[in-house]
Amino acid sequence: MPSADLFFDINAKLEEQKRSSNQVDLNFSLSITTKPNIVKYSTAGIVTLEGTPTDIKKKLEANPKTKIPQILFTVYQHVFNSIYILASILNTPYPPPDLLHPMAEKIQILPVTPKSEAETEQTAPSQPAAQPELNAATQPSGTSNNAQQASPST
Fold it and tell me: What is the pTM of this model?
């Protein structure tokens, strides 16, 4: 493991697939890479939001500070557990559990840019995530990029 500071980049995508009066199905994909380039974690799945239209709308609204939809915070918390276990098995660095909840001085919002997926030394296989049911909100279809500094654990 490198002893220098380690950064994590996260690319996320949410796409609405189906909507009814009290339910929204969203496809999501997350790709988390390290800088320097040590490991890449990728996952995709479906999240189902159930609740009143108002509750669903709140969950899909972007946080004003980070511009990240609230549902993405919840999805990341579920995905993080699998990444942590996989990283422990592979003996690779894992992102912090609060990667999407960083302190203001630690976050850098980057513009959306396409990235090559062939830049990794070690790639974790894509794993479908569970379909959590949450009382939440409506509407995204966007991508956000965030970087947070962390120190590697040994």
Answer: 0.61
